[in-house]
Amino acid sequence: MEWVSLVITLVTALAASGIAIWQVRTQRVRQVEDFYIARYWSLLDRLSVCTLRGVDVAPLSEQEEAAVRLYFRLSEDEADLRAQGWVSDFTWRFWGGAIHSQMHRPPFDRLWAETIRDSDAGRDYEFRHLRQLWHDASYDPPPSQAFRRWLRRSPWRRPAMPVRH
Question: pTM to 2 decimals?
Answer without folding.
Answer: 0.79
